[in-house]
Amino acid sequence: MPTDGDTERRLRWFRDARFGLFVHWGIYAAHGRGEQVLCRDLMPLEDYEPWADEFRPAAGWADALAAAAVDAGARYVVLTARHHDGYCLFDTATHDFNAARTGPGRDLIAEYVDAARRAGLKVGLYYSLLNWRWHAYWDPANYAAEFPAMVDEIHTQIRELMSHYGDLDVLWYDGALVPGDVAHGMWGGKPIRQHPADFFRTTELNAMVRKLQPHILINNRAGLSEDFGTPEQRVGGEEHDADRAWETCMTLNYAPGWGYLRHSLANKSAAEVLFNLIDAVRLGGNFLFNVGPRADGTIDHREADVLRRIGAWLKTHGEAVYGTRPEAIYDLSRGRVQGPAFHYGMWTCKGRTAYLTLFYYPGEDLVIAKVQPGIRSATLLTTGEPLEVKPLSNRRTLITGLPADPPDPLAPVVKVEFDGPPAAFITKDAKWLDAAEGL
Predict the structure, then answer these.
(1) For residues 381 and 414, is the Cβ–Cβ distance under 8 A?
(2) Out of 4, 53, 208, 420, which could bridge 103 as a Cys pair, Cβ 3.0 to 4.6 Å?
(3) Does the pLDDT value for residue 1 go beyond 50?
(4) Cα separations (Å) of 129 from 84, 124, 126, 157?
(5) pLDDT at res. 438
(6) Distance between CA 211 and CA 239 in Å, rounded?
(7) What is the residue range of 353's domain?
(8) How far apart are CA 165 and CA 181, in angstroms?
């Protein structure tokens, strides 16, 4: 296993990147009902597998996807090499249910990796250990003889992915469910009594991955903790260790719809997506925003619009996101995640510089309380205009000169220079009610 120092060196780019693009794409895109339709609609394989011949990505899809990621301000991309339906976007020797031998007629992972590298993006691959096409997954008692083949297929396909595409940056596992352990409700099966890491032989699998890809980052979804945690559809680290790397993954919609949804009527706004991004970053995590392209590889207008708006915001305010750290402004060890000025917005930090993203705009005057040390200066990052700083009682600071109305349609940012790295201070008595000295 790598040492903690090795892990931190490999994580450095990841902690600085902060924002990535998740891409769920496969034959299910042709019908626009999400990536889980095979299981949730109880489709027989004879009905589902012909969809592979309807899956016809356009030429240049990968370059367009990479360009969209760059324009959105993402620093890395993670694409589904194989989802739970078992269809592979790469040419595998294990079976013919893959992009090279069905509708596309070519290796889509090769196209993606090349395009991402040309665009300067870090390259990640998602891989589902779960494969719904095995009878043994649904009925382990009667199909236990399939277990070795199920696991051998995984090891072979991971070896192919780690061997055929040059240097990779992220391996994003999913679906570490042992046979019979169905994640979705309304199923009466009984899971086998074996830990996922033992069933999938994850220690052996990851040792092979690290031998072939020494610099790769591996997530925690194969039964072992590895490099980073992956809270899904919520912001917040999975562990109580404040130093543990983590990454929130989230869709635009509120359903379990990661793949293309032709009709998605309940979606987050661009401001909500930005709020979740900043919420993750200010607590020390990354934000992996998902898109589900259409069958031709183009991004739906709803997701594309949000990406464009986030990208425009990051072009102006990117320094408030990239390379930032929580510092001590949030008392994470005590679970105090709201912190100073939370009724106005959220802080991100770089050394003694901090950025307050204002989701709840105060108007022309902004009061900063419950944060130390002193404030030297402030600038409206959104416009570059300097702001006036004045000390008040109770160790507060008044920042004036802001426009009466929000100067950014998503969220303006105030850049604040402190005398040292900012930290929260906790009031312990009622002195502040009387503007007492020594608060």
Answers:
(1) yes
(2) 53
(3) no
(4) 8, 16, 10, 10
(5) 67
(6) 27
(7) 332-434
(8) 32
